[in-house]
Amino acid sequence: MLSQPIADPAARARLLDAIRFDARGLVPAIAQQHDTGEVLMLAWMNREAVEETLSTGRVCYFSRSRGGLWRKGETSGQVQGLVELRVDCDGDTLLALVDQTGVACHTGRRSCFFSALRDGEVVPITAPEVDPAALYGG
Protein backbone atom coordinates (compact mmCIF):
# COMPACT_ATOMS: atom_id res chain seq x y z
CA MET A 1 0.00 0.00 0.00
CA LEU A 2 1.26 3.48 -0.84
CA SER A 3 0.02 5.20 2.33
CA GLN A 4 1.38 8.71 2.58
CA PRO A 5 0.77 10.24 6.01
CA ILE A 6 1.48 13.95 6.27
CA ALA A 7 3.82 14.25 9.25
CA ASP A 8 3.92 18.06 9.39
CA PRO A 9 1.01 19.37 11.53
CA ALA A 10 1.30 22.82 9.93
CA ALA A 11 0.89 21.32 6.45
CA ARG A 12 -2.17 19.33 7.60
CA ALA A 13 -3.64 22.53 9.07
CA ARG A 14 -3.13 24.43 5.79
CA LEU A 15 -4.99 21.72 3.87
CA LEU A 16 -7.80 21.66 6.44
CA ASP A 17 -8.10 25.45 6.18
CA ALA A 18 -8.61 25.11 2.42
CA ILE A 19 -11.67 22.88 2.90
CA ARG A 20 -15.17 24.37 3.08
CA PHE A 21 -17.23 22.02 5.23
CA ASP A 22 -21.02 22.32 4.88
CA ALA A 23 -23.43 23.38 7.64
CA ARG A 24 -23.32 19.81 9.04
CA GLY A 25 -19.53 19.93 9.13
CA LEU A 26 -19.18 17.54 6.18
CA VAL A 27 -17.52 17.55 2.78
CA PRO A 28 -18.03 14.99 -0.02
CA ALA A 29 -14.97 12.91 -0.84
CA ILE A 30 -14.53 10.97 -4.06
CA ALA A 31 -12.16 7.99 -3.86
CA GLN A 32 -10.23 7.25 -7.05
CA GLN A 33 -7.66 4.52 -7.64
CA HIS A 34 -4.41 6.44 -8.00
CA ASP A 35 -2.81 4.44 -10.82
CA THR A 36 -5.79 3.55 -13.02
CA GLY A 37 -8.09 6.56 -12.54
CA GLU A 38 -10.99 4.25 -11.66
CA VAL A 39 -13.62 6.08 -9.60
CA LEU A 40 -14.36 3.83 -6.63
CA MET A 41 -16.84 5.55 -4.37
CA LEU A 42 -18.23 8.72 -2.85
CA ALA A 43 -18.40 9.19 0.88
CA TRP A 44 -18.35 12.02 3.40
CA MET A 45 -15.63 13.38 5.66
CA ASN A 46 -15.77 15.68 8.64
CA ARG A 47 -12.76 17.57 9.98
CA GLU A 48 -11.77 14.70 12.29
CA ALA A 49 -11.88 12.17 9.41
CA VAL A 50 -9.69 14.42 7.24
CA GLU A 51 -7.24 14.92 10.11
CA GLU A 52 -7.01 11.17 10.75
CA THR A 53 -6.61 10.40 7.05
CA LEU A 54 -3.78 12.89 6.72
CA SER A 55 -1.99 11.83 9.88
CA THR A 56 -2.25 8.04 9.36
CA GLY A 57 -2.26 7.62 5.57
CA ARG A 58 -5.30 5.32 5.88
CA VAL A 59 -8.53 6.80 4.54
CA CYS A 60 -11.18 7.51 7.16
CA TYR A 61 -14.69 8.77 6.42
CA PHE A 62 -17.65 10.00 8.46
CA SER A 63 -20.61 7.61 8.38
CA ARG A 64 -23.81 9.62 8.33
CA SER A 65 -25.88 6.52 9.16
CA ARG A 66 -23.71 5.55 12.15
CA GLY A 67 -22.97 9.13 13.17
CA GLY A 68 -19.26 8.50 13.61
CA LEU A 69 -15.92 7.84 12.01
CA TRP A 70 -15.69 4.98 9.54
CA ARG A 71 -12.20 3.70 8.88
CA LYS A 72 -12.45 2.16 5.44
CA GLY A 73 -11.81 -1.56 5.74
CA GLU A 74 -12.12 -1.82 9.53
CA THR A 75 -14.74 -4.56 9.14
CA SER A 76 -14.07 -5.91 5.66
CA GLY A 77 -10.30 -5.57 5.40
CA GLN A 78 -10.76 -3.64 2.13
CA VAL A 79 -8.51 -0.74 3.15
CA GLN A 80 -7.76 2.46 1.25
CA GLY A 81 -4.24 3.81 1.61
CA LEU A 82 -3.93 7.52 0.90
CA VAL A 83 -1.67 8.51 -1.97
CA GLU A 84 -2.81 12.14 -2.21
CA LEU A 85 -5.73 14.25 -1.00
CA ARG A 86 -6.84 17.01 -3.36
CA VAL A 87 -9.26 19.89 -2.79
CA ASP A 88 -11.40 21.19 -5.66
CA CYS A 89 -11.46 24.80 -6.88
CA ASP A 90 -14.24 25.82 -4.48
CA GLY A 91 -12.86 23.89 -1.52
CA ASP A 92 -16.15 22.03 -1.13
CA THR A 93 -15.23 18.60 -2.54
CA LEU A 94 -12.27 16.30 -1.94
CA LEU A 95 -10.61 13.82 -4.27
CA ALA A 96 -8.77 11.07 -2.44
CA LEU A 97 -6.28 9.31 -4.67
CA VAL A 98 -6.02 5.92 -3.01
CA ASP A 99 -4.44 2.52 -3.22
CA GLN A 100 -7.49 0.28 -2.77
CA THR A 101 -6.99 -3.16 -1.25
CA GLY A 102 -9.67 -5.45 -2.70
CA VAL A 103 -13.11 -4.07 -3.46
CA ALA A 104 -14.41 -0.62 -2.49
CA CYS A 105 -18.16 -1.30 -2.53
CA HIS A 106 -20.14 -3.02 0.22
CA THR A 107 -21.84 -5.05 -2.55
CA GLY A 108 -18.56 -6.83 -3.22
CA ARG A 109 -17.84 -4.89 -6.41
CA ARG A 110 -14.62 -3.01 -7.10
CA SER A 111 -16.51 0.29 -7.58
CA CYS A 112 -19.79 1.59 -6.17
CA PHE A 113 -20.59 2.91 -9.67
CA PHE A 114 -21.76 -0.36 -11.20
CA SER A 115 -25.19 0.54 -12.58
CA ALA A 116 -25.82 2.12 -15.97
CA LEU A 117 -28.59 2.65 -18.47
CA ARG A 118 -28.62 -0.17 -21.02
CA ASP A 119 -31.46 -0.64 -23.51
CA GLY A 120 -33.66 1.72 -21.52
CA GLU A 121 -33.11 -0.04 -18.18
CA VAL A 122 -30.80 0.66 -15.25
CA VAL A 123 -28.80 -2.53 -14.83
CA PRO A 124 -25.64 -3.69 -13.10
CA ILE A 125 -22.70 -3.64 -15.52
CA THR A 126 -20.23 -5.42 -13.27
CA ALA A 127 -20.62 -8.48 -11.09
CA PRO A 128 -19.50 -8.74 -7.48
CA GLU A 129 -15.91 -9.89 -7.08
CA VAL A 130 -16.45 -10.97 -3.48
CA ASP A 131 -19.51 -12.23 -1.61
CA PRO A 132 -20.52 -9.40 0.77
CA ALA A 133 -21.23 -11.99 3.47
CA ALA A 134 -17.56 -12.99 3.31
CA LEU A 135 -16.56 -9.34 3.82
CA TYR A 136 -18.92 -8.49 6.63
CA GLY A 137 -19.74 -11.84 8.21
CA GLY A 138 -23.40 -11.65 7.26
Automatic annotation (TrEMBL):
Sorted keywords for this record are:
Amino-acid biosynthesis, Cytoplasm, Histidine biosynthesis, Hydrolase, Magnesium, Metal-binding, Zinc
Describe the reaction catalysed, as an equation.
Answer: 1-(5-phospho-beta-D-ribosyl)-ATP + H2O = 1-(5-phospho-beta-D-ribosyl)-5'-AMP + diphosphate + H(+); 1-(5-phospho-beta-D-ribosyl)-5'-AMP + H2O = 1-(5-phospho-beta-D-ribosyl)-5-[(5-phospho-beta-D-ribosylamino)methylideneamino]imidazole-4-carboxamide
Give the Pfam families listed for this entry.
Answer: PRA-CH
Q: Which GO terms describe its biological process?
A: L-histidine biosynthetic process
Where it sits in the cell: the answer is: Cytoplasm
Residues holding Mg(2+): D88, D90, D92
Q: Where is the Phosphoribosyl-AMP cyclohydrolase domain?
A: 41-114
User: What's the EC number here?
Assistant: 3.5.4.19
Chief site of localization: cytoplasm
Q: In which pathway does it act?
A: Amino-acid biosynthesis; L-histidine biosynthesis; L-histidine from 5-phospho-alpha-D-ribose 1-diphosphate: step 2/9; Amino-acid biosynthesis; L-histidine biosynthesis; L-histidine from 5-phospho-alpha-D-ribose 1-diphosphate: step 3/9
Family assignment? Belongs to the PRA-CH family.
| Subunit-level organization | Homodimer.
Function comment: Catalyzes the hydrolysis of the adenine ring of phosphoribosyl-AMP.
Protein name in the entry: Phosphoribosyl-AMP cyclohydrolase
Q: Which organism is it from?
A: Roseomonas acroporae
